Amino acid sequence: MPEVAELRVQPQDLLAEQSVLGSIFISPDKLITVREFIGPEDFYKYSHKVIFRAMIRLSDRNDAIDATTVRTILDDQG
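The structure assignment produced for this chain is given below.
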């Protein structure tokens, strides 16, 4: 029988992760506030981590954070 620790899954709430990303798309200036509390490593789903990192890169470059610019960064990363 597997160890109990092997059966545990990290707590996750994919809807909450999607809500955070969606709120940044709606109001990009909220990324500053969100970054005070969470980082890419706090996302459970890998694709959400990648999207959040792309948003941070755009913010650091003072570029717009929208679906088009995030998509461009993701395409550039492969």
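Interim note for the steering committee: The two ends are 40 Å apart (CA to CA). The mean pLDDT is 90.
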